[in-house]
Amino acid sequence: MEINRHAPIVLRHEIDVFAPPEKVWMWIAQVEFWSEWHPDIGTAYWTDDEPQERRGFKFGVKMFRFTARLHVYDEPYEIGWQASHLFSSHRQVFRLRGDYRQTALTSEAWYEGRIAEMMSERLREPLDQFGQTWLAALKTRNESAP
């Protein structure tokens, strides 16, 4: 999934997780469990009925609701989606690489649209915090779960 380096807001985060990529992947790819381990996500669910055809999903972050669609699903190496909310859209991609002991996890996100253009300086810090929370929560979930 290509990154739009010209978007008004572009963020990148990295973390090492002491768990194999397959285990880390499980927690990212199972959208319906996000609210169990991500402190900022209140709801998350698939909108497609058939498990083998799942591409669309919705999730809520605080008072905001997003409609999303998977764009890349390369288990257990890369997963990415595009989500929209009102006058903005964003794309997020997670890349995993590692071995049976450890995963180097990278998240890249970029935000586009009128809101991102008009309020990029104001939104950058909370979105950066949200990106850091993704990785910290994944690390905690994977390193504390059997």
Query: How many individual β-strands?
Result: 7
* Structural Rg: 15 Å
Low-confidence stretches: none
Assembly type = single chain
Q: Mind summarizing the main beta sheet? A: 7 strands, antiparallel
Q: For the record, what is the CATH homologous superfamily label?
A: START domain
Strand arrangement within the widest β-sheet reads: 1-7-6-5-4-3-2
Q: How do the helices and strands follow one another from N- to C-terminus? A: EHHEEEEEEHH
- CATH class label: Alpha Beta
Percent of residues in beta strands? 35-45%
Q: In which range does the helix fraction lie?
A: 25-40%
Provide the structure class.
alpha+beta
Mean pLDDT equals 92
Number of continuous helical runs: 4
| Distance between the amino and carboxyl termini | 31 Å
Taken from the alpha-carbon principal axes, the silhouette is globular
CATH topology: Alpha-D-Glucose-1,6-Bisphosphate, Chain A, domain 4
Structural notes for this entry:
The protein has 146 residues and is α+β, with helices and mostly antiparallel strands. The protein has a single domain (9-144), classed as START domain (Alpha-D-Glucose-1,6-Bisphosphate, Chain A, domain 4, 2-Layer Sandwich), CATH 3.30.530.20. 29% of the residues lie in helices and 42% in strands. The protein has 4 helices and 7 strands, in the order βααββββββαα. The protein has helices at 21-29, 34-37, 114-118, 120-144; strands at residues 9-17, 41-46, 56-61, 64-74, 78-85, 88-98, 103-113. A 7-stranded antiparallel beta sheet has the order 1-7-6-5-4-3-2. α1 (21-29) crosses α4. It starts with 8 loop residues before the first strand and ends with a helix. 25% of the residues are buried.
